[in-house]
Amino acid sequence: MDFRDELPVDHRLANVYRFGAGLCGVVLLVFGCLGLADGLAFFSTTGERVAGLSSNGLLSWISIATAVVLIVGAAIGGNTASTINIVVGTLFVLSGFVNLALLDSGANVLAFRIPNVLFSFVMGLFIATFGMYGRVSAKLPLDNPYWRHRHPESTAPQTVRPIHSSAPRPGIAGPAR
Predict the structure, then answer these.
(1) Partner of 76 for a Cys bridge, out of 80, 99, 140, 143, CB 3.0 to 4.6 A?
(2) Separation between Cα atoms, residue 36 and residue 120, nearest integer Å
(3) CB 175 within 8 A of CB 163
């Protein structure tokens, strides 16, 4: 299913996808840059505190790479940004679960702690929500391209006549004034 032709360039949903990707990308970029500025050890499993979260050099670089992906998605916009948001948000939530299982083990190469896991869950849901906005809702507006794609049998919404139309009024002969 290809929505590139369905979603107009200036559709209001494109702004939501861009804003979400850009905002979350900037937050991750700042976190990653702060970690690199502190000169953290690359594979330290204990990590150092950066902006209230535990971090190491590897997590800083992963945060920067993820931020670049989100910011590029924001620059492209449209359905690309939406899809990138959904995928990255899902990966964040999965990362939270994986790193929750790895806490206090030698395999904790990203130096996650409980605040990192919670941040991963919250940020993942936040990013995915931005990506799914207007795509997966029970009450999509009739002009939404996703609603139109799911209901091809429906015709375009009926146009409303202007208030000052010349339609005949019942019980009165002659043209309307």
Answers:
(1) 80
(2) 19
(3) no
* CB 88, CB 143: distance < 8 Å: no
Q: What is the pLDDT of residues 147-168, one digit of tens each?
A: 666 667 775 555 555 555 555 5
State how far Cα 39 lies from the chain centre. Answer: 31
Structure tokens at 100: 């929750």
pLDDT of residue 148: 66
Token couple for 118: 């919670």
Provide the b/e sequence for 39-76 (b: ≥16 CB within 10 Å).
ebeeebbebbebeebbbbbbbbebbbebbebbbebbee
Beta carbons within 8 Å of 151's beta carbon, 6+ residues apart: none
102's tokens: 């790895």
Q: How far apart are CA 90 and CA 84, in angstroms?
A: 10
Distance CA 58, CA 79 (A): 30
pTM of the model: 0.69
Q: How many helices (H) and strands (E) in the chain?
A: 5, 2
